[in-house]
Each structure stands twice: as structure tokens, then as C-alpha cells.
From TrEMBL:
GO terms for biological process: protein processing. It is found in: Secreted. GO terms for cellular component: extracellular region. Belongs to the peptidase S1 family. CLIP subfamily. GO terms for molecular function: serine-type endopeptidase activity. This is Serine protease snake. InterPro entries: CLIP, CLIP_Serine_Protease, Peptidase_S1_PA, Peptidase_S1_PA_chymotrypsin, Peptidase_S1A, Trypsin_dom, TRYPSIN_HIS, TRYPSIN_SER. Keywords: Disulfide bond, Hydrolase, Protease, Secreted, Serine protease, Signal, Zymogen.
Length: 334
């Protein structure tokens, strides 16, 4: 009996010695395989965050399995290669305002843009809104920032640095393209593109998020807005960490809003930070909400509007992924 035990221990020791010293988890995306949906149609097993139909409450979700803490579902969506995906690969080829906002590090958000409006004084501009560089010659912003009091922005200041840094070159705007379905009296389709006269070559653009956002997802808002409601704006770029709020939870705050007569649409989403009271505020409009994935910044939202600053009500943001069909033919026509 003792001999058998010693022999068994010897086999186990040899087996353990041959095992790797660390466990390697394969990439979740490597597990895509065919599956059958509840209605009999063919689908692919895919991470739920990359399956818009599964995130639609009207779609009955069928789970393939769980990989770590991620739900892998049977997805009916056919993968689509967006022009923004190809552009993003060229931007990042080698990859292994703010209420009570936090200061940003130098060059932390090089794609951040400040929109400058002409004043009565020559060569002096008032920066009233934000935007984000998505291509060397295009800036994405909010539609309500593209025309304020009848005036349109005339220059952009790139780099995400201080508004008082006069060493950074301002770039002139050639054309302002407001979404055709935008109504200034409402907050729907609050998105616009600014075409620049000359490309910005010394600051890297951000990528556009093409996938669906999950409730409670962590995102970062950046802007030069007011540090408190009705207060003065910041000359330095600020950031705030927010969580995506479900449309159902957000809807109750805006049920009587004149800006949202049809309620929240799927082209919008809400976000806030209840723990520390950070939020976007006046002056942050048009600025991006960023979701980082393996250090690549994806623009998932554009600051639209809210009820005050850092109130109980979440802020409302334009969902960028819903406008790729409008953005791509303009920015990447080929």
C-alpha cells in the first residue's frame, strides 16, 4: 500500500512540474463560434458588449457560456468593418468641465479641442464649447455648439492644454456641418462636424466607439467647463469619471423636459458620478466622453445637456455609435 501511495505521489509531482508557471487566459474574442438563436436563425457566440441586438431589451438573449466574468451570447449581428475602425488602426498601430473635476496630466488628452468664437477684438477668441479631433481635418462636437446666438465657431485650439497657452497654433474652420435632423429647440441629434482648413498633424485623433455601452460602464468626461453651476470656467482641461446610467433610471428626471418631448431616445444615454458629485457643466458642451480599451481612446458620447451641474439628475449625452452612418461618408468618403 505504501509503495502505491509513493508511486502516485511521484506521478503527480511529475505532472505538476510539466505545467506552466502561470495560467494564460485566451482572448475572449477568440471564442467566436456558430450558434442557433431562439428563433432558429444562425448566430455567432460573442461577448455581449459587442452584440447590439442582445443589449436591446426586446431581444431574447441566449447565453452561449461565461468566460471569466464576461457573458458570451448568441448574437445575430453580422460583424461590420467601419471606416472609423480602419482609421483607428492607423492612429494607434502598435497597441499590446467639470464639476469638482480633476486636473489632467500634460498631453493626457491630445485629441481634446476647444471651439473659439470671434470677439470684438482682433485675434482674441472666446472658447465656449469643446470638441474632439476624430481625423486630422475633422472635429466632432455638439450641434448646439456649432451655432451660438447666431455665431459659428471660427477656430479650434487642439491639444487639450491650457486655453492660455499661446504657443499652440489655432486652426481655422472651413465648414460647419450640423446633423440634418437637429432642431435647436430640442436635444435630439445634437451632433455636428467641423471641417478644418488645414489638417492638425501634431496631435493624435481619438477613435470612434462603434459598440454598445453597458449600464454602469466607466467612462471619462473632459472639458473646460465651469467648476460649479453659474461659476467661472476653467482655463485648464478637467476630467470627471462617470458611470453610464440606464435609460429607465434616467428617464424619470427628464419626463417633463421641453428638450426631450419624446423622452430619451436610443441615440442618447445618461451618465453621472453620484459618489463624488462630479459632472459636466456649462462650457463642457460638445466635449467627448471617452472609453479607453487597452490604452486606445474611443469617443462614445458628446456632452449635450443636463439639469444644472452635479445635481441628482444624470447628464444627457449624444450616443456616437448611432451616428456612424452619418459621420463616416463625410470624414472617410472612400
Amino acid at each position: 500500500m505504501l509503495l502505491e501511495v509513493l508511486l502516485l505521489l511521484g506521478i503527480c509531482a511529475k505532472t505538476l512540474a510539466q505545467m506552466p508557471d502561470r495560467i494564460i487566459f485566451p482572448d475572449i474574442d477568440d471564442f467566436e463560434s456558430e450558434c442557433t438563436l431562439s428563433d432558429g436563425e444562425q448566430g455567432m457566440c460573442r461577448n455581449i458588449r459587442y452584440c447590439p441586438s442582445a443589449l436591446d431589451s426586446r431581444e431574447r438573449v441566449k447565453t452561449c457560456y461565461f468566460e471569466r466574468s464576461e457573458q458570451i451570447v448568441c448574437c445575430r449581428d453580422v460583424p461590420k468593418e467601419y471606416a472609423t475602425t480602419r482609421a483607428c488602426s492607423s492612429y494607434y498601430p502598435l497597441v499590446d468641465q467639470m464639476v469638482s473635476g480633476l486636473s489632467t496630466r500634460p498631453n493626457e488628452f491630445p485629441y481634446m479641442i476647444a471651439l473659439g468664437f470671434e470677439t470684438m477684438l482682433p485675434d482674441l477668441f472666446e472658447f465656449k464649447c469643446g470638441g474632439v479631433l476624430i481625423a486630422p481635418n475633422f472635429v466632432l462636437t455638439a450641434a448646439h455648439c456649432a451655432r451660438i446666438g447666431g455665431a459659428t465657431p471660427s477656430v479650434v485650439l487642439p491639444g487639450g492644454g491650457s486655453l492660455t497657452d499661446y504657443s499652440v497654433r489655432k486652426h481655422e474652420i472651413a465648414d460647419v456641418l450640423i446633423h440634418p435632423d437637429y432642431d435647436p429647440k430640442k436635444a435630439y441629434n445634437d451632433i455636428a462636424l467641423l471641417k478644418l482648413k488645414q489638417p492638425i498633424v501634431n496631435f493624435q485623433p481619438a477613435c470612434l466607439g462603434a459598440t454598445a455601452l453597458l449600464d454602469n460602464e466607466n467612462i471619462t468626461a473632459i472639458g473646460y467647463g465651469h467648476t460649479q453651476f453659474g461659476g467661472r470656467s476653467s482655463d485648464d482641461l478637467l476630467k470627471a469619471y462617470l458611470l453610464v446610467v440606464s435609460s429607465k433610471a434616467c428617464q424619470k428626471f427628464y419626463k417633463d423636459s421641453v428638450e426631450l418631448p419624446r423622452g430619451l431616445m436610443d441615440t442618447q444615454f445618461c451618465a453621472q458620478d453620484r459618489q463624488f458629485g462630479r459632472d459636466t457643466c456649462q462650457g463642457d458642451s460638445g466635449g467627448p466622453l471617452i472609453l479607453k480599451n487597452i490604452h486606445i481612446p474611443y469617443v462614445v458620447g458628446i456632452t449635450s445637456f443636463g439639469l444644472g451641474c452635479a445635481t441628482e439628475a444624470p447628464g444627457v449625452y449624444t450616443r456616437v455609435s448611432k451616428y456612424l452612418h452619418w459621420i463616416e461618408p463625410i470624414v472617410w468618403p472612400n
